[in-house]
Amino acid sequence: MAYDPENIFARILRDEIPSTRVYEDDEFVAIRDVAPAAPTHILVLPRHEGVTGPADLEQADAPWVGRMVVVATQVAREQGLDADGYRLVMNWGRDAGQTVPHLHLHILGGRPMLGLA
Ligand code: 5GP
């Protein structure tokens, strides 16, 4: 899939579309999901453009993808999710229900999530 720089998350990162930011640094922005699937539902977006989802990743991406996971755990902690737990989810493609073709990591918490689907 070719990366489309007009995708919703690229536009949110450029501040062309409003969002509620809960964290940002040089590499990542974390926003509240507009249609939360859990009481706390946050998306960690890499500012890096060009990766539509996990299936696009290459070995060279491993360092920043690793940092994205660590940032997600930091945001989850700041949101008070450490004690009861949370889920990190990265979707790829139709069967996973991916809707936005810019790599992102979901942080879901605030309710029990038993089972994987
Ligand atoms: P995916 O299904 O691609 O893994 O996740 C995309 C997520 O982005 C969905 O949970 C959806 O609710 C969220 N989303 C879609 N459009 C917007 C938007 O304009 N703003 C925000 N904050 N979230 C969005």
Structure, explained:
- It is built from three helices and five strands.
- By secondary structure, it is an alpha+beta fold.
- The protein has a single domain (8-109), classed as HIT-like (HIT family, subunit A, 2-Layer Sandwich), CATH 3.30.428.
- Strands 1-2-3-5-4 form a five-stranded antiparallel sheet, with helices on one face.
- A hairpin with a 7-residue loop joins β2 and β3.
- The two termini are 25 Å apart.
- Bound molecules: guanosine-5'-monophosphate.
Please estimate the helix content. Answer: 10-25%
**What is the fourth-level CATH superfamily?**
HIT-like
Q: How large, in whole angstroms, is the Cα Rg?
A: 14 Å
Question: Total helix count?
Answer: 3
**Largest sheet report:** 5 strands, antiparallel
Order of helices and strands: HEEEHEHE
Mean pLDDT: 97
The CATH topology is given as: HIT family, subunit A
Q: Tell me, what is the CATH class?
A: Alpha Beta
CATH architecture: 2-Layer Sandwich
The rough form would be described as globular
Cα-to-Cα separation, first versus last residue: 25 Å
* Structural class by helix and strand composition: alpha+beta
| Spatial strand arrangement across the major sheet | 1-2-3-5-4
The small molecules bound here are: guanosine-5'-monophosphate
Structural domains: how many: 1
Number of DSSP-assigned strands:
5
Task: Provide the low-confidence segments as ranges.
Answer: none
β-sheet strand percentage: 15-25%
